[in-house]
Design goal:
With about 575 residues, this protein is mainly α. The chain folds into two domains: about 500 residues, Glycosyltransferase; about 40 residues, no CATH class. About 45% of the residues lie in helices and about 10% in strands. The chain is built from 18 helices and 22 strands. The strands form ten sheets. The chain has a three-stranded antiparallel sheet. The protein has a three-stranded antiparallel sheet with strand order 12-13-14, with no helix packed on it. The longest helix is centred in the first third of the chain and has 32 residues. The protein binds 2-acetamido-2-deoxy-beta-D-glucopyranose (6 copies). One 2-acetamido-2-deoxy-beta-D-glucopyranose binds next to helix 2.
Length: about 575
């Protein structure tokens, strides 16, 4: 007996040695020569690339701190600054303040990136400076949406990072200063919601509230992308007014959808009427969709899920053409504009969140193809003519393609996405790096530059690229990212308890997994749908509301085709119309 055991141990040891040492060596030497991927090749690449992105961030950050801080953004070509907070979204540059010296916008936007890069000393220094010097009591008219995602989101996220268990501060230096600033800012937002509809004005004066004769026109994303930041602020401060205002606006907006479950792009906050009926998934609408699914993940509320699912299915039905998304009239569903806009590149990231990996992959590839054609993404590209839009030829260092690349890599671990990331990093360094920072591209056909380094380059572009190559900073905890790339943790305290009816029939087989990880995008890696469908080997059930992305009929036949929602472990069923989802009422 014991002799036999010894033999088998010896054999086993040999096998283990082979597997651990010899096999990788053979594998590495073969794969290096035929240029495929091996573990050590990839980890060396990840190390090299994360170092490269780190250098990009600090080149942007240090130049901002030297030439622009405490003003809002850096002008990298003239090594000067711009107080751009009051210009954001203000295309006609109306009502610009006379006496406004900036709110250190780029510094606020850099806080969460500094934490991800592990620079706690600089983070602490920045927090202390902001808590002593930043004030929102300024006579400046600002865009509510921009101010919410950049300043409020930046402050709330940094507050959470400052107070998490990892103790980033010298004893006693952090006393919720960022939260106090966020709360002060949130209170200044509230007068914007004082309309007959509850839909907020797009513009507000930080000191005096809504100006007389202020425009009543706003956008869908302007009303529908406030819930993450304002909801988090309410949860942190215990003051429910912020979440209530954002939720009330979202309800009103959702109530304005057409019978096709489509929304327009612009509307009037006084009358609650649509102004622009054509819409898509790009500018003016984009983050509305993003915030429905992310609010569901962050707060666990069933109603966000239902809104998202209806909206998502309508997008797939009326806007999608193959891997592309055009615009359509919300009333008829008829296609209006056949254009790709650079902002749409966030969509595959949202699709990864709901598990629609196949569709996300195909759309992402199309965006990357256009990126490669020009070296960066043009703001608008005419799909029907395959040319750049005559006036929107710019690329302001936008993050969306890097963001989707990061999500797809997290979901698939396919090293091809690192190649994409490398190509993005290389073109940014080649075309947009100047001595004083990173400059926007004015015209992608000539690569002529523009003297502006947007704060989202530090908050998002550098952050997603860095996390693509080094995801260790966020390991062990689930986060969602706001539309400005600021992480918010998914914690059970903020979750609504789900009704028992949502729990799938065979709960025991997946319970353990779901208790360990809270429902979020990144827990896709332990996708319970895969565990729960052993009878469907080879038939991968991917998505929350999966519309199979084939050229055929996009439909399911039975409940078994739909499996279990991998982000929240609820059983899905096949509707009478043939769509998978959480059809509670049929
Ligand atoms: C802005 O800076 C100018 C020049 O330094 C100064 O005169 C002015 O008072 C400042 N404005 C505010 C609102 O602090
Ligand atoms: C943190 O950032 C500051 C400012 O760029 C820099 O001087 C310092 O070396 C950084 N520290 C680390 C650990 O990266
Ligand atoms: C508001 O608009 C009205 C009508 O156009 C005008 O008479 C009034 O002066 C405006 N008020 C301000 C403060 O601009
Ligand atoms: C993405 O698409 C490419 C090209 O069609 C394919 O080779 C690859 O397997 C796809 N990856 C995923 C995760 O679907
Ligand atoms: C539930 O799933 C587990 C593991 O897949 C299996 O062993 C068990 O028999 C299932 N129970 C029922 C009631 O289907
Ligand atoms: C209250 C105050 O002014 N605090 C700080 C603001 O920033 C300057 C320089 O950046 C510091 O010296 C002040 O202490």
């Amino acid at each position: 007996m014991s002799g036999k055991r010894k033999t088998s141990w010896t054999i086993r040891t040999i096998i283990i040695i082979f597997v651990l040492i010899i096999f990788p060596t053979i594998f590495v030497s073969c794969s290096m020569s035929d240029d495929s991927y091996s573990y050590s090749y990839l980890s060396a690449k990840r190390k090299r690339m994360s170092h490269k992105v780190r250098k990009m961030f600090y080149h942007a950050y240090d130049n901002y701190m030297t030439y622009a801080f405490p003003h809002d953004e850096l002008k990298p070509m003239t090594k000067s600054f711009t107080d751009s907070l009051s210009e954001l979204g203000n295309l006609k540059l109306e009502n610009l303040p006379q006496e406004y010296n900036g709110s250190a916008l780029t510094l606020v936007e850099s806080l969460s990136s500094l934490v991800i890069l592990g620079n706690n000393t600089e983070f602490e220094r920045a927090v202390i400076w902001l808590s002593e010097n930043l004030t929102f009591d300024v006579d400046a008219r600002i865009n509510l949406f921009e101010c919410n995602i950049r300043l409020l989101g930046g402050l709330v996220s940094a507050h959470i990072l400052a107070t998490d268990s990892r103790n980033r501060f010298t004893q006693g230096t952090y006393n919720n200063q960022l939260l106090d600033l966020a709360q002060d800012l949130g209170k200044r937002f509230l007068p914007a919601f004082n309309t007959p509809t509850g839909l907020p004005y797009a513009w507000i004066n930080l000191k005096y509230g809504v100006m007389e004769n202020e425009t009543t026109e706003t956008s869908t994303s302007g009303c529908g992308s406030l819930i993450l930041e304002m909801g988090a602020l309410s949860r942190l401060t215990g003051d429910p007014r912020f979440e209530y205002a954002a939720l009330h606006a979202l309800h009103k907006l959702w109530g304005m959808r057409s019978s096709l479950n489509l929304l327009g792009t612009t509307l009037d906050v006084e009358t609650g009427e649509w102004i622009e009926y054509s819409s898509g998934i790009g500018a003016g609408v984009d983050s509305f969709y993003e915030y429905l699914i992310k609010a569901h993940i962050l707060f666990g509320k069933e109603e966000y899920w239902r809104m998202f699912q209806s909206a998502y299915l309508a997008v797939q039905k009326y806007f999608r053409y193959g891997s592309w998304y055009h615009e359509a009239d919300m009333r008829t569903g008829r296609a209006t504009y056949w254009q790709l806009t650079s902002l749409q590149a966030f969509w595959p990231g949202v699709q990864v969140l709901v598990g629609d990996i196949t569709a996300a992959n195909l759309t992402h590839r199309e965006f990357f193809r256009v990126w490669k054609k020009f070296g960066v993404l043009p703001e608008r590209y005419l799909l029907d003519h395959q040319i750049v839009h005559p006036t929107e030829k710019y690329y302001p260092l936008r993050p969306e393609l890097a963001e989707s690349t990061y999500y797809l890599y997290q979901a698939t671990k396919d090293p091809w996405y690192m190649e994409v990331g490398e190509a993005i990093v290389n073109s940014l360094n080649l075309h947009t790096k100047v001595e004083g920072g990173f400059a926007s591209v004015r015209d992608v056909t000539t690569m002529q530059l523009e003297d502006h380094q947007h704060s989202f380059f530090l908050a998002e572009t550098c952050k997603y690229l860095y996390l693509l190559f080094d995801d260790s900073p966020l390991m062990g905890r689930n986060y969602i990212f706001t539309t400005e790339g600021h992480p918010l943790p998914v914690i059970s305290d903020w979750h609504e308890k789900l009704p028992d009816s949502y729990i799938p029939r065979n709960w025991t087989s997946i319970k353990i997994e779901t208790q360990k990880k809270h429902a979020s995008a990144m827990s896709m890696q332990v996708c319970p749908a895969n565990l729960a469908s052993p009878g469907h080997a080879g038939h991968k059930i991917e998505s929350v509301c999966h519309v199979p992305d084939t050229w055929s009929d996009h439909r399911c036949l039975t409940d078994d085709d739909c499996g279990i929602d991998s982000t929240n472990c609820r059983r899905r069923s096949c509707s009478m119309a043939g769509y998978c989802g959480l059809w509670l009422f049929i």
